Automatic annotation (TrEMBL), chain B:
Name listed for the protein in its UniProt record: Cytochrome c oxidase assembly protein
One Pfam family recorded for the sequence: Caa3_CtaG
GO cellular component: plasma membrane
N-terminal signal peptide: none
InterPro entries: Caa3_assmbl_CtaG-rel (IPR019108)
Location of this chain's protein in the cell: Cell membrane
Membrane topology term: Multi-pass membrane protein
Length: 162, 281
């Protein structure tokens, strides 16, 4: 994601970087990447999650479908937005990293609290005590959130290299 | 589930697919302005997927997984390839004036605008699939070959209109805005995913009216439907956002040259308009 050199195109062109758009585009990618990792690692590779859990209520099924479709759309849309920022030379790499971490952490916390506990779509693993897994997943997300906020805060104008 | 067993691949759909491919290539050779190769490739890929669905997969197997694969290819993958081939644009380029006038008249017709609205198209495509799978229609189509072919034609037609409405490069008068198109794509993909999981959860009773029910096979068919729907959504989303990316690039380039934002034909040729950064990515 070190896209700073894309600016080198126009010799006399001096473009201001767009920190807000950079953070948002990368944030969307962050959300979608963690969602995809969750799907691939826990559902497919480890087989910990179940495709469908008997305790899933109808509203859970509906929200699961909507969230899943939105994640895929966000993944593709985020990458094209990011590519557009890069091509126009207005990408702010540090803001983008901050946004990415923030998005990834936000999704992980949301998944741990709302999907697993509130909607009870599925659990992280079956047949084992859940508490350590839940604590690890939610605390990991919170740590990412915090790190993202710090990086984003340091990407403010006035500090060096946006 | 035995009605179509032994029927084998029907030669009629395969002949029609071959005609579609040949007709398109003939039109491309007659276009003097030079047709983009990517569009031909996309059209031919769409035809190849159709041939796969109508040929090897249509062998009359009773396996619901084969049926799901066929529906995914016919209703979601092939239509996108065909729509990205921009057949209407090609027709408008090479057809004689009376045909062109007729096509333009159809494109301007109000019923078409209603039909080609992304929401209507999504309702016909995903909604139609739900109606088939949640009612005895699916079991009836297992027994009646004409109903079976009719449903396949419906999947293909509805899928084509949906792909065209969301991402198609072909002209669409009064095309819905990007936010509406993205929203409808989201809704249709979510509907497809919910339908697949619902079928998984109720494989013991759905689709209703099946003579010999293999619940395990129906479950894995529903799983395939779910993941296949993901692939189709990713492809359609990529086509949609790639079109946005291209449009935005042209607009930015035009603005850099001081040209009007809407014209599609003006090609910037002045030296100051050669914006190198458009190509450095």
């Amino acid at each position: 994601m070190s896209g700073g050199r894309a600016v080198g195109g126009g010799p006399s062109r001096l473009r201001a970087v767009d920190r807000r758009a950079s953070a948002l585009a990368a944030g969307i990618i962050g959300v979608a990447v963690v969602a995809a990792v969750d799907e691939i690692v826990f559902h497919q590779v480890l087989g910990w999650h179940h495709f469908y859990d008997r305790s899933t209520p109808a509203v859970g099924l509906l929200s699961d479908g909507l969230l899943h479709a939105a994640e895929l759309l966000a993944l593709v849309g985020g990458f094209f937005w990011f590519a557009d920022l890069r091509r126009r030379g207005v990408l702010a790499p540090r803001a983008a990293w901050g946004g990415f971490l923030l998005g990834a952490g936000a999704f992980q916390v949301f998944d741990g609290v709302v999907d697993h506990k509130v909607l009870r779509l599925h659990q992280i693993r079956y047949g084992v005590p859940l508490l350590p897994y839940d604590v690890f997943w939610i605390a990991g997300g919170a740590a990412l959130l915090l790190l993202g906020a710090v990086v984003l805060g340091r990407a403010r104008p006035g500090t060096t290299s946006g | 589930m035995t009605g179509l067993a032994g029927a084998g691949a029907d030669p009629l759909p395969l002949t029609l697919v071959a005609l579609l491919a040949a007709g398109y290539l003939l039109a491309v050779t007659r276009d003097r302005r030079g047709w983009r190769r990517g569009r031909s490739v996309s059209w031919l890929a769409g035809c190849a997927v159709l041939a796969l669905a109508f040929g090897p997969l249509a062998g009359g197997s009773a396996d619901p997984r084969v049926h799901v694969a066929q529906h995914l290819l016919l209703g979601m993958v092939a239509p996108l390839g065909l729509a990205l081939g921009a057949p209407v644009t090609l027709l408008l380029r090479v057809a004689p004036p009376p045909v062109r006038r007729a096509v333009t008249r159809v494109l301007r017709a109000r019923p078409l605008h209603l039909l080609a609205h992304p929401a209507t198209a999504a309702l016909l495509a995903t909604g139609g699939l739900a109606v088939v799978l949640l009612t005895p229609l699916y079991a009836a189509a297992e027994r009646n070959p004409w109903l079976h072919h009719g449903l396949h034609l419906h999947y293909l037609a509805a899928g084509y209109v949906f792909a065209w409405a969301v991402a198609g490069p072909d002209p669409a008068p009064r095309r819905a805005g990007p936010a509406m198109r993205a929203g409808v794509l989201l809704g249709a993909a979510a509907g497809h995913a919910v339908l697949a999981k619902y079928l998984y959860a109720h494989a013991a009773t759905l689709p209703p009216g099946l003579a010999d029910r293999d619940v395990a096979a129906l479950r894995s068919a529903a799983r395939l439907m779910w993941y296949g729907g993901d692939v189709a959504e990713l492809l359609l989303a990529a086509a949609f956002f790639a079109a946005w990316y291209g449009r935005r690039g042209r607009r930015v380039q035009r603005a850099a040259c001081g040209l009007p934002a809407v014209s599609r034909t003006v090609k910037p040729s002045a030296p100051q308009c050669r914006v190198t950064w458009l190509h450095d990515w």
